[in-house]
Backbone:
């Protein structure tokens, strides 16, 4: 049985959990892929268009990800490791502290950025940017492997 917030049920991701995911103390870990493309800055989604992890009431989520960004004009590539912690104690989702982004490999230092952030709707976003001017027919492409652990409180 999948937890109510797992995107695994919709996007063929991998999940690990106890038999039931409703009582205080229950937990699950899910692995999912976000992806997308844009001209300069964009969001990544598990379905490429709109699906993201939602931090619903009475949940804590710890997330980590590996992000790969490629400029399709120059083939410049960057890899980031990102971390974020979120909670919703019933009054809305909040970010715990500041998310962390570490550049692991970059063809050009500072060309790309990647980070976790929280949307106004309480969804975990992966935001990516490419600072180079791209021709109108070119984009940057990004993919993120996200692993998150969710705890019922």
Residues:
């Amino acid at each position: 049985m999948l937890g109510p917030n797992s995107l695994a049920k919709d996007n063929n991701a991998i999940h690990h959990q106890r038999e039931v995911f409703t009582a205080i103390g229950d937990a699950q870990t899910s692995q999912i892929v976000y992806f997308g493309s844009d001209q300069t800055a964009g969001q990544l989604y598990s379905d490429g268009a709109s699906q993201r992890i939602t931090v619903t009431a009475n949940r804590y989520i710890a997330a980590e990800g590996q992000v790969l960004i490629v400029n399709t004009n120059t083939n410049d590539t960057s890899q980031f490791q990102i971390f974020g912690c979120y909670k919703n104690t019933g009054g809305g989702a909040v970010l715990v502290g500041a998310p962390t982004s570490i550049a692991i490999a970059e063809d050009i230092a500072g060309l790309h950025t990647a980070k976790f952030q929280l949307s106004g709707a309480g969804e975990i976003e992966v935001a990516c940017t490419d600072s180079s001017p791209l021709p109108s027919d070119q984009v940057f492409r990004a993919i993120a492997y996200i692993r998150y652990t969710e705890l019922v409180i």
Remarks:
- Residues 8-11 form the longest helix (4 residues).
- The longest strand covers residues 59-71.
